Amino acid sequence: MIRVEQHGDVAEIVMDTPPVNAFDRPFLERLGEALAGVPARTRAVVVSSAVPRIFAAGGDIPYMARADLDDQMSYVELCQEVYGAFDHVGVPTIAAIDGACLGGGLELALSCDIRVVSPAVRLGLPEATLGILAGGGAVHRIVRAVGQAPARDMLLTGRRITGADAHRIGLASRLADPGTVTAAALALAAGIAALDPDAVRAVMTEARAVLPVGGS
Predict the structure, then answer these.
(1) What's the mean pLDDT in 96-114?
(2) By three-state DSSP, how is residue 71 classified?
(3) CB contact set of 50 (below 8 Å; sequence gap of 6+)
């Protein structure tokens, strides 16, 4: 489902649940465990996918459609807990997006410090088109990432944008050719891991504190 591979001082959390890395309860729980369990020597974390043409396609919609209100609230709280863990982990995090990144997938990517994408991938928060809310914190995080105008456009319409557009508006900070995104993210992480860890931690803490993220 999810595995952790260590590359020196860099931990790579690999999502590998075909066909779309759907964020059901076991998947989210394992994702949180994977982050919490990275080795102590880790100085940067990369989140990637082993599923071709998919980063993550979001939440478990069939479950959400049939669950009662208490179950839905519990599920949303789990989403908030896991995504929030990326906000508070003590090392920089990088999302390597080389496939569709939608709904909960983009919520996860927004929880990372840096996003590396290939130009043609699709990213979006389509929850409004499904009659639900991006409840894991993405409403706040996307505003923090790109500002009010582009964030509201994506949130209110549910439209999907390309990786190239994501880079243009600041949703992603780096572009890489298809098939090279994970390697580029790992190289970036290795470069950060080689820097003074106290300086990196101080910068990261201050940057994350610029605009606190709410839970819903």
Answers:
(1) 96
(2) helix
(3) 14, 15, 16
